[in-house]
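Researcher: Let's do a round of design. I'm pasting the C-alpha cells now; please hold your answer until I've finished.
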C-alpha cells in the first residue's frame, strides 16, 4: 500500500507544476456564467477583428507639472516598448503626442491628446494595448513596461510613473499570489508539526500524518490537472491555496483520529495488526461520514454562477475524497509498519482494565451531566450575542482595499482619480447594434444622470468629445455582424460601490435608447456588479442545498432526526458568531470596515461543513457507547474519551486556516480570520459544551423517530 501511494505521488509531481501554471491564468475566474458582462467579453473576443484588447495605462506624474522633457521621455518609452518585442500580441502604444506603433484605423479606440493630459498638467497617460488577455501574457507585458518606464518612486529628475489599467491590476493581483502556495505550505507544516509534537510528544507520530497528507496532496494535484486539461473544470490561484489549507487541516485531523484510536487499542491488544484493524474498523465510519459531508458541501459549490466559486467545488471535493482514502489506507499501513515505535518515546504498553483516572475532560463531562440546561443557555447566549453584533451590511472591498499593501496599479489608479475623470483606468465597454450606436452613445454620455450621489455616471465615451477628426466614428469598432463597440468612462472611482450601483441604471438607459436592438454593457465595473448579484443568488441556492445534504448524511449515520437538526443549528450559530465578531474586529480593531463579497458564502461552507464534520467524531462515539449505556451516560463517556483528540483536531484545523492570514490579499485574510474564529468557537463552545449539554437534556428523545431500547446502565 505504501509503495502504491509513493508511485502515484511520484507520477503526479510534474503535474503539480502544470496545475500551478494553469491556475496562473485567471482571465475567466471572476466572471459570471450567463451574465451580460461575460457576454460582452465573449462577443468582443469572437466577433471583432482584434478581439478583446487589454490596456495597460502608464501614468506619468510630476507634482510641479509635466515638462517638455517629460513628454519626450514618454514618447521615447513608447518607442522602446514598440521595438522591444517583449509585449505579447501588442497592437498599439500611444502617448498624448504620438502613436508610437500600431496600424492607423479610423475605427480605432485610442483617445485624443486632450484626453491623455490632466486638466492641471501634472499627469500624462500613455496607453499600451494588447489582444491577449491571458494572465501570463499580461504579467509578461506589465513586467516589460515597468522595466522601461520610471519607477513609482521617481527617476533622477523626479518624474514618477505608475503602470495601472486592467493589465496593471491583473498583474499586481497575480503577483500577490506568486509563491503563495509555497508560503502556505511552509507555514502550515510548521504550525501542524508544532501542535502535533505538543499533543503526542512523539516525532514520528507528528511526521506521519504530515507525510500522508503531502502524498495525498500530490496525487490530488495530478488528478486535478487531469480534470482541468480535459476541460471538466477550471482552476485559479485562490482554489489551489485553499486546497492546501483544506487538505492539510482536514487530512491531518482524519489521521489523528486513527492515531488516537490506534494508541488506545495498543494498550488493550498485544498484536499490532490486531490493534490497527480494531482502530480502523471503529474510526472508518466516522471518517467516511465526515468526509462525505465535506465532499458533498464542496460539490454544491458547482451550482454557483460565479466562476471563482463554481470551479472551487470539484477540486476541493476531489482533495477531501483523496484524503479520506489516504487516511484509511496509507495511514494504517504506515502505522502498522512502524508498530509501537511510532509513539517513541511515549510508547503505549499493555495495561490491565482498571478504573480510569479523573481527567480534565472527565471533569468537563461531569459538569455537562450535572448542569446541562445552564451550560446550554450560557453558550447559546454568548454565540447569539456575537451573531447579533454582525447585524448591518458592510460595504464591499473595492480593488484598492483588496491588497494589504497598495501595489503600483492601485497607486496609479489613485493618481488618475485625483487628476482625471476617475473611470479612465477601467472604462465601461458597450456592445450595440450599429443602427442605434449613436443614439445609445449620446444617451449614456450626454443625457444620463444616475441617482448615485447626484453625479453624471458616464463622463464621456471614446470619441464623443469631438476633439479630433472623425469624432463621430472615433472610438467605435464594427464587427461583421453590424455591431459596434465603444468605451465610456465613469466620473467616479470605477472600483467603488457607487460605480457598481450605477450599472443597472446605465443598462436601463442604454436599453431604452436601443429601442429593442442589441445593447450590452460590460467591462470591469459591470463585471463587479454581475459578480455581486451572482454571489447573492448563489448564497440563496447553496445554503439550503448544503444544509439539506448535511442533514441527510447525519440522519443516515445516526439513524435519527432530532440530533442532526440541533447539531446543524448549533454550527450555524457558531458561523453567525464568527461572522458577527469578525465584523466588529475588522471594523473597530483592524480599521477595515469593508468586507470581501465572497466572505459569507465561503465562511458558511467551510464552517458548517467542517463544524458538522468534527461533530461527527463525537456523535459517532456517542452512538457507539449508546449500545452499552443509556443516552445520558453515553454522552458523558463519549465526551470524556474523545474530548482531547477532537479538541486537538479542532485546534489543528483552526491553526491551518489561520495561515491564510499571512497572505497579502485582504480577501484571504478575512476568510482565514473568520473561519479560524468560527472553528475555535465550535471546538471549545459548541462541540465541547453545547452539543453534549443538549444531548444530555434530550436523553432518549435524541434518537426520534427511531425507537431504541435503553441499554442497561
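Researcher: That's everything. Go ahead.
Model: Designed sequence:
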Amino acid at each position: 500500500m505504501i509503495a502504491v501511494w509513493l508511485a502515484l505521488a511520484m507520477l503526479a509531481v510534474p503535474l503539480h507544476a502544470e496545475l500551478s501554471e494553469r491556475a496562473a491564468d485567471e482571465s475567466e475566474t471572476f466572471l459570471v456564467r450567463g451574465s451580460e458582462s461575460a457576454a460582452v467579453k465573449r462577443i468582443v473576443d469572437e466577433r471583432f477583428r482584434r478581439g478583446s484588447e487589454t490596456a495597460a495605462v502608464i501614468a506619468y506624474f510630476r507634482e510641479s507639472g509635466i515638462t517638455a522633457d517629460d513628454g519626450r521621455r514618454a514618447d521615447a518609452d513608447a518607442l522602446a516598448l514598440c521595438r522591444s518585442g517583449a509585449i505579447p500580441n501588442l497592437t498599439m502604444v500611444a502617448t498624448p503626442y504620438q502613436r508610437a506603433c500600431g496600424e492607423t484605423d479610423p475605427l480605432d479606440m485610442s483617445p485624443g491628446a486632450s484626453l491623455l493630459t490632466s486638466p492641471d498638467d501634472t499627469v500624462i497617460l500613455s496607453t499600451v494595448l494588447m489582444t491577449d488577455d491571458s494572465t501570463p501574457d499580461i504579467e509578461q507585458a506589465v513586467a516589460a513596461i515597468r522595466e522601461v518606464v520610471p519607477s513609482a518612486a521617481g527617476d533622477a529628475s523626479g518624474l514618477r510613473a505608475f503602470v495601472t489599467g486592467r493589465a496593471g491590476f491583473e498583474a499586481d493581483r497575480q503577483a500577490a499570489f506568486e509563491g503563495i502556495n509555497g508560503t502556505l505550505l511552509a507555514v502550515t507544516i510548521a504550525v501542524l508539526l508544532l501542535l502535533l509534537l505538543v499533543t503526542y510528544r512523539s516525532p514520528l507520530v507528528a511526521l506521519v500524518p504530515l507525510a500522508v497528507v503531502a502524498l495525498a496532496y500530490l496525487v490530488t494535484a495530478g488528478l486535478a490537472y487531469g480534470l482541468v486539461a480535459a476541460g471538466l473544470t477550471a482552476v485559479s490561484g485562490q482554489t489551489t491555496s485553499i486546497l492546501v489549507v483544506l487538505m492539510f487541516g482536514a487530512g491531518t485531523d482524519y489521521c489523528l483520529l486513527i492515531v488516537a484510536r490506534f494508541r488506545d487499542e495498543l494498550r488493550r491488544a498485544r498484536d499490532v495488526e490486531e490493534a490497527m484493524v480494531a482502530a480502523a474498523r471503529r474510526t472508518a465510519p466516522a471518517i467516511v461520514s465526515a468526509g462525505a459531508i465535506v465532499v458533498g458541501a464542496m460539490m454544491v459549490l458547482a451550482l454557483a454562477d460565479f466562476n471563482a466559486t463554481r470551479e472551487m467545488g470539484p477540486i476541493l471535493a476531489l482533495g477531501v475524497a483523496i484524503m479520506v482514502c489516504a487516511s484509511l489506507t496509507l495511514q494504517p499501513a504506515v502505522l502498522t509498519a512502524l508498530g509501537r515505535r511510532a509513539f517513541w518515546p511515549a510508547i503505549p504498553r499493555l495495561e490491565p482494565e482498571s478504573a480510569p483516572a479523573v481527567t480534565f475532560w472527565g471533569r468537563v463531562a461531569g459538569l455537562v451531566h450535572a448542569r446541562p440546561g445552564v451550560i446550554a443557555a450560557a453558550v447559546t447566549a454568548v454565540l447569539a450575542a456575537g451573531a447579533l453584533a454582525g447585524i448591518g451590511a458592510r460595504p464591499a472591498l473595492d480593488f484598492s482595499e483588496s491588497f494589504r499593501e497598495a501595489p503600483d496599479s492601485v497607486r496609479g489608479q489613485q493618481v488618475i482619480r485625483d487628476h482625471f475623470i476617475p473611470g479612465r483606468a477601467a472604462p465601461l465597454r458597450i456592445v450595440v447594434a450599429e443602427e442605434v450606436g449613436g443614439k445609445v452613445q449620446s444617451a449614456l454620455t450626454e443625457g444620463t444622470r444616475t441617482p448615485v450621489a447626484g453625479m453624471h455616471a458616464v463622463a464621456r465615451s471614446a470619441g464623443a468629445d469631438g476633439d479630433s477628426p472623425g469624432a463621430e466614428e472615433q472610438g467605435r469598432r464594427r464587427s461583421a455582424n453590424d455591431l459596434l463597440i465603444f468605451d465610456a468612462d465613469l466620473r467616479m472611482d470605477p472600483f467603488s460601490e457607487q460605480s457598481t450601483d450605477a450599472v443597472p441604471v446605465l443598462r436601463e438607459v442604454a436599453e431604452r435608447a436601443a429601442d429593442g436592438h442589441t445593447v450590452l454593457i460590460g467591462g470591469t465595473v459591470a463585471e463587479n456588479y454581475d459578480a455581486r448579484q451572482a454571489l447573492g443568488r448563489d448564497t440563496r441556492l447553496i445554503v439550503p442545498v448544503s444544509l439539506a445534504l448535511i442533514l441527510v448524511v447525519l440522519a443516515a449515520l445516526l439513524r435519527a432526526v432530532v440530533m442532526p437538526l440541533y447539531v446543524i443549528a448549533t454550527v450555524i450559530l457558531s458561523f453567525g458568531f464568527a461572522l458577527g465578531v469578525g465584523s466588529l474586529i475588522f471594523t473597530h480593531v483592524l480599521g477595515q470596515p469593508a468586507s470581501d463579497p465572497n466572505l459569507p458564502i465561503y465562511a458558511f461552507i467551510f464552517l458548517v461543513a467542517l463544524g458538522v464534520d468534527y461533530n461527527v467524531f463525537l456523535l459517532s462515539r456517542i452512538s457507539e457507547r449508546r449500545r452499552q449505556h443509556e443516552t445520558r451516560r453515553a454522552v458523558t463517556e463519549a465526551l470524556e474519551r474523545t474530548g482531547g483528540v477532537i479538541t486537538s483536531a479542532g485546534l489543528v484545523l483552526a491553526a491551518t486556516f489561520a495561515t491564510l492570514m499571512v497572505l497579502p490579499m485582504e480577501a484571504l485574510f478575512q476568510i482565514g480570520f473568520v473561519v479560524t474564529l468560527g472553528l475555535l468557537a465550535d471546538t471549545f463552545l459548541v462541540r465541547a459544551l453545547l452539543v453534549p449539554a443538549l444531548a444530555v437534556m434530550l436523553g432518549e428523545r435524541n434518537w426520534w423517530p427511531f425507537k431504541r431500547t435503553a441499554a442497561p446502565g
